[in-house]
Amino acid sequence: MTRVRDKVAALRNAVGNAADLRTALQSKPRTSPAAYLQAEERGGPVKYSGPVTVQDVSVSLQLVLFFRSAKGEGDGAGAREGMDVLIAATRAALVGWSPGDAFQALYFQAGRDEYFDCGWLVSQQIYQTGYRIQHQVQP
């Protein structure tokens, strides 16, 4: 979240957490644009057995973006224009960046518009990274 706040000026004061993806998608932010960030981890199979266990973990970061058109048009053209600018800014901030030494660089995985309602366009952008769990097996 800090990376998005620091690098995307339009979201500096409008990035938050939600309990889950459904809650984020159903929320109506107080300001436009706004974003919620969710993470999902999936572990792969253990690669080595014996005294050291190694497991790769993939992490999906789901960035739910909200943009409300100030024009009040019914077709969402203004919201679409604003969302496209917001998506480009978030991609520039996240693609190729790593959240820490133990993580792989983020890459864009998927994006889709979720809905347009009452002037709000909601889009989900998914980025992928990964890290490795490695530890000594306890007897």
What is this entry, summarized?
Helices cover 22% and strands 45% of the residues. With 139 residues, it is of the alpha+beta class.
Widest sheet: strand ordering: 1-2-3-5-4
Give the N-to-C terminal Cα separation. 39 Å
The coarse silhouette is elongated
Arithmetic mean of pLDDT: 88
Tally of helical segments = 3
Rg estimate, integer Å: 18 Å
Order of helices and strands: HEHEEHEE
What is the number of beta strands? Answer: 5
Entry keywords:
139 residues, elongated, five-stranded mixed beta sheet, alpha+beta, 3 helices
How is the topology of this model organized?
Blueprint: H1 2-7, E1 15-16, H2 21-26, E2 34-48, E3 52-68, H3 77-94, E4 107-117, E5 120-136
Parallel strand pairs: 1-2
Antiparallel strand pairs: 2-3, 3-5, 4-5
Describe the protein.
The model has no long low-confidence stretch (mean pLDDT 88). This protein has a five-stranded mixed sheet. It starts with a helix and ends with a strand. It is elongated. It is built from three helices and five strands; from the N terminus they run αβαββαββ. The chain has 139 residues and is an alpha+beta fold. Helix content is 22%, strand content 45%.
